[in-house]
DNA sequence: ACCGGTGCGT
């Protein structure tokens, strides 16, 4: 990508130089172009047409900031050249800056390279210009020239270079720049250190980002935001939320962007009471939501388990873009409310919002979660026919999942054969799921092996393959997979279940006895199992495909983390309270049945979030996701 | 100079 951009640049650079040489002008056109830009004067109309008002550098600067296109900038540039004003450092810098603002980097650099004299502003403007349009190689090369020029590097250019390191994920280069920062004694500069934090965090080194962050004597909003964003992005949303609280504790008032970031973190965490807290905070402002913040809140509520709260935000928004609509569609989709998701589509069109690739991923995934086969097929065709959006792997993945779950394995396989795109992890995952539902061990084995090749470090796929062999009674193969896994020092990801009670999160593992109220939990569970068994519950070990050995043993089946969490929730909360449960892996089929029955027998609403979606159970025992187990 | 922010599959 960088190489492409670099070579593209050398081509346009030539063009720019051509245009620079060809731009000729006369004194007459000079005032004609500049006049509209000159501030209105109170002086009388010109008395002597032969002595035009003297041109001041400021006239060019104010003309430049009003330019609407590179072509206009070139005109002013030509005039400045004629008026010999381009040799004025301030005027030249402003030209370079304005060219860069319009993305005309070739023009900017052509001028920059011809400047007789350059100061820090010149360098900062050109280096920043390159970053802005993504010409990272040029940015870094120019920065090297800057360092060699002997001028003192300053706090204006460094953030741009650090941004180039961030965008290209070049940690080593970033560390080099960090050394330069120390050499220049700029480690306490607000913008430079904020850029350093951002660079480290986005290069995957949050610990060093945090070190820089902690050493800062003062921080501004951007610093807090990049640090929170770094934690959210690298899979530590808890710390992101903790920083948000700390920031508020220190009397810093988070702005919209900081709030968007923390909403994003909360969506990743999926903890409802935190979502409510963030929403309460937003409600305490008296200004309306902007598109980005509103959309972030929609997604946050959806991923914390409430499509209805997401809808409330959606309805209150004045402006909605394609991301807003897609998020709302997706919100219904992950909650198994496919019909409502699809109903949004015509409304979206009425609002003159054009669906894009991702909108259709959300639509198809909603169809799949709700079992809407015909609708899914229709949308799959319509997206290309009516919107010229060619289905990509993700769309095919949704379709394979949809058809597989709906019992149409052969159609799913047909589609898979027809697809010429390279099959990725997600696609094989969906195909595997479809094969497993239908007991097609041969194809399941193929899919699982592809997954092992694509993700040799993901222990989950070894477990799956091992289970496929076990189901087919191929015990030597089971042993082989286990050995392979052990030889790569991989272990099964432990299954955990979390439950939120009174704004507190409790975690359970299989057979967990570490909870302080363990005794009560096991007593409640025992009574519950008896109640459910008399209501027809039969423990089912056949579907426990994604959990393994220990958990499969009969004794453990009764103490699956989900069941412990449910038992705890039942005795720790009043009768009408909704139980919100999160599991890091998929909820197994037995637990699904168990929870469904439990919600019916105990007249409780239970919302389970697993690694992929939500399962809504209510007192009536129905699950709005449908049953595909 | 004006940084930091929103949606997608198993």
Termini separation comes to 44 Å
Order of strands in the sheet with most strands: 2-1-3-4-5
Hey, roughly how much beta strand do the residues contain? Answer: under 5%
Largest sheet: 5 strands, mixed
Overall geometry comes to elongated
The total count of helices amounts to 33
Averaged pLDDT: 86
Rounded to an integer in angstroms, the radius of gyration calculated over CA atoms is: 31 Å
Helix content: 55-70%
Ranges where pLDDT stays below 50 over 5 or more residues in a row are 1-52, 544-548
Structural class: mainly alpha
Number of strands: 5
Jot down its keywords.
629 residues, mainly alpha, Serine Threonine Protein Phosphatase 5, Tetratricopeptide repeat, 33 helices, 64% helix, elongated, disordered N terminus, DNA-binding, zinc ion binding, repeat, RNA binding, E_motif, TPR-like_helical_dom_sf
What does this 3D model show about the protein?
- This protein is mainly alpha-helical.
- 64% of the residues lie in helices and 4% in strands.
- The protein contains 33 helices and five strands.
- Helix 7 packs antiparallel against helix 8 (136-148) and helix 13 (221-233) packs antiparallel against helix 14 (237-249).
- The longest helix has 21 residues, at 2-22.
- 44% of the residues are buried.
- The structure holds one DNA strand of 10 nucleotides.
């Amino acid at each position: 990508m960088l190489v492409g951009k670099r070579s593209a640049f050398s081509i346009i650079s030539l063009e720019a130089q051509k245009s620079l040489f060809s731009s000729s002008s006369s004194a007459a056109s000079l005032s004609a172009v500049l006049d509209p830009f000159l501030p209105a004067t109170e002086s009388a109309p010109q008395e002597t047409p032969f002595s035009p008002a003297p041109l001041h550098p400021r006239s060019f600067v104010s003309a430049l900031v009003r330019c609407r296109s590179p072509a206009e900038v070139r005109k002013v540039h030509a005039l400045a050249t004629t008026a010999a004003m381009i040799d004025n450092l301030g005027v030249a810098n402003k030209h370079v800056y304005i060219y860069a603002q319009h993305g005309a980097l070739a023009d900017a650099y052509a001028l920059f390279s011809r400047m007789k004299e350059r100061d820090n502003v010149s360098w900062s403007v050109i280096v920043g210009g390159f970053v802005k349009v993504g010409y990272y190689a040029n940015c870094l090369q120019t920065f090297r020239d800057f360092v060699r020029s002997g001028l003192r590097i300053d706090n204006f250019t460094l953030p741009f270079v650090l941004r180039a390191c961030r965008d290209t994920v070049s940690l080593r280069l970033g560390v080099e720049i960090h050394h330069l920062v120390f050499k220049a004694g700029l480690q306490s500069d607000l913008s430079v250190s904020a850029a350093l934090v951002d660079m480290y965090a986005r290069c995957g080194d949050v610990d060093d980002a945090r070190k820089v962050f902690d050493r800062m004597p003062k921080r501004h909003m951007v610093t807090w935001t990049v640090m929170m964003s770094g934690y959210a992005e690298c899979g530590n949303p808890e710390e992101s939320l903790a920083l948000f609280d700390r920031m508020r504790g220190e009397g810093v008032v988070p702005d919209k962007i900081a709030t968007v970031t923390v909403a994003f973190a909360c969506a990743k965490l999926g903890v409802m009471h935190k979502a409510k807290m963030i929403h309460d905070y937003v409600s305490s402002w008296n200004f309306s939501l902007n598109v980005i913040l509103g959309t972030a809140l929609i997604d946050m509520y959806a991923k914390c388990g409430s499509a209805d709260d997401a809808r409330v935000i959606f309805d209150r928004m004045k402006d909605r873009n394609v991301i807003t609509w897609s998020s709302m569609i997706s919100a219904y989709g992950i909650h198994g409310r496919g019909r409502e998701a699809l109903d949004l589509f015509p409304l979206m069109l009425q609002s003159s919002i054009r669906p894009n690739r991702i909108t259709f991923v959300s639509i198809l995934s909603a169809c799949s979660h709700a079992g809407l086969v015909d609708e899914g097929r229709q949308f799959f065709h319509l997206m290309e026919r009516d919107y010229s959006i060619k289905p990509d792997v993700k769309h095919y993945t949704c379709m394979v999942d949809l058809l597989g779950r709906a019992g149409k394995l052969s159609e799913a396989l047909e589609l898979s054969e027809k697809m010429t795109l390279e099959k990725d992890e997600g696609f094989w995952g969906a195909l595997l799921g479809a094969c497993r539902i239908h007991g097609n061990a041969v194809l399941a084995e193929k899919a699982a092996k592809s997954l092992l090749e694509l993700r040799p470090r993901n222990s989950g796929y070894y477990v799956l393959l091992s289970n496929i062999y076990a189901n087919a009674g191929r015990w030597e193969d089971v042993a082989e997979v286990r050995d392979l896994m052990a030889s790569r020092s991989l272990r099964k990801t432990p299954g955990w279940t979390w439950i939120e009670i009174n704004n507190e999160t409790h975690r359970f593992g299989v057979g967990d006895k570490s909870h302080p109220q363990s005794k009560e939990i096991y007593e409640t569970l025992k009574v519950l199992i008896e109640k459910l068994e008399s209501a027809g519950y039969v423990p089912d070990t056949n579907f426990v495909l994604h959990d393994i050995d220990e958990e499969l043993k009969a004794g453990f089946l009764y103490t699956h983390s989900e069941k412990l969490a449910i038992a705890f929730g039942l005795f720790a909360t009043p009768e009408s309270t909704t139980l919100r449960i999160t599991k890091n892996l998929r909820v197994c089929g037995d637990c699904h049945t168990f929870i469904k029955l439990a919600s019916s027998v105990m007249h409780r609403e239970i919302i389970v979030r697993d690694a992929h979606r939500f399962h809504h159970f209510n007192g009536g025992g129905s699950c709005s996701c449908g049953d595909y187990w």
